[in-house]
Amino acid sequence: MQKFVYYAPTEIVFGQDTELQTAGLVKKYGGTRVVLIYGGQSAVKSGLIGRVEQNLKEEGLEVLSCGGVVPNPLLSKAREIAKAAVEFKADFVLAVGGGSVIDTAKAVALVLAAPEHDVWDFWSKKASLEKAAPLGSILTISAAGSETSNSSVLTNDDKTPPTKRGINSDSFRCCFTIMNPDLTMTLPVWQIGAGAADIFMHTSERYFAKILGNHLTDEIAVGLFRDIIKYGPIGVKDPKNYEAMSEIMWCGSVSHVGLTGIGAKGDTAREGDWACHQLGMAISALYDSTHGATLSAVWASWARYVKSQNLPRFAEFARKVYGITEADDAKAADEGIQRTNEFFKSLGMPLTITELLGHEPTDEELTKLADECSYDRTRSIGSFQTLDYDDILAIYRMAK
Q1: Is 382 left (phi over 0), alpha (psi -120 to 50) or beta?
Q2: What's the start-to-end Cα distance of the chain, in Å?
Q3: Which pLDDT tens digit goes with each residue over 92-104?
Q4: d(Cα 181, Cα 186) in Å, to the nearest integer?
Q5: In 3D, which of 234, 226, 336, 348 has the Cα closest to residue 297?
Q6: What pTM does this model have?
Q7: Which regions of the chain does DSSP assign to beta strands (E)?
């Protein structure tokens, strides 16, 4: 086990009716003027936004509510809300929703701390990421883990075609997150399944690392794999199952809080791979596809392409996660990949790009995806195996 620094400052308030504690938590972290950010009208129609607004106002807090955030959150919407928040003189950002809403809130928090900057200045590294206004979240979708992570992703819809980029900063970690599994029970089953796939992948990206070590970290990852594999399909079949939806929600936060990447590189954490996320983000940018579904569409092709870099790691994954008893590493690895595809299928997720898009992509389409993923052939991705443009295109073709 090598040196590491672990930082996870978010206060987690978990359980039924915990959204009624919102005002007290906002005040605890210094908020007086709150910009409340949410997605579509479902949060309004369910009464959640009204309940939260009432809770805040009854405690003497000023509230500006801004909705309309969409999946694969847009730079244009983040700019719109940030401008309104600055004019309102907000001193606290509250996200009510899933990863897209929380990622947008993180962008707004950065601008509130440095209003002279445009949102994209932070994503293009023209502005410092060291300071942000305080923010909290009420989670309604178990998937992205943005409620406990130090990352945020936006789609720049100014560009043609659009491009999707992510940044990392401890400055915009949520001060608190409220997690009531009841709030996830009205989600479409497609969204529950895509969320479970994303949760699995946040652990996969860290588990399949080039530099290994810290066996406790591996055991945490294996336990998380097993839990989401067990409860993800139950949640898809029965969204009213509180046990399943609770487990999925907790898995979502733990999968992206950094625990499964500790202690194997330098002074920070195990270097994850993240190639599948980059492959999937390119698909989302060009086709506005659901994030978790883009990951299930490419994972097996990526795994088969890179497995020879460390075949025993894939075999260990198969044996510990799925209980596969095959002694031959190559056969065990292949069985583990197949079982993972079966898991994705049980969630209702696509296993190929053709399934995802509803048509077989042309080679020209795959080339455009590879261009987007490689930033027009200027970067490589991955660490388990470094993938250049040709590798990226080959994986897309395998995943077709």
Answers
A1: left
A2: 39
A3: 999 999 999 999 9
A4: 10
A5: 348
A6: 0.94
A7: 11-14, 33-38, 62-66, 92-97, 135-139, 151-156, 163-168, 176-179
